[in-house]
Amino acid sequence: MNKKGQVFFLTIMLAITIIILALALAPVLKENSDIARNVTTGDTIGLDCSNSSISTFDKANCMAVDMFNPYFIGFLILLAGGLIASKIYL
Fold this sequence. Notes:
about 90 residues; mainly alpha; 2 helices
């Protein structure tokens, strides 16, 4: 097998590893963002996003925490798809 064939399989394995990593990180990131959005209790400091009287800065921070998960997981899956597509089409 020539070097192009070996690099193709290595790239496919790397892309599959990135997809598995993204799927494994999804529940962990969801749990951490839920903890960050909750009310401060004990040692856990939260944003209290369910409170309607928080400042606009805190509301924006809550929105940023909410948007992080789908963008991060989507970026990882898009990166893996790009790796696969680059080896298939080039």
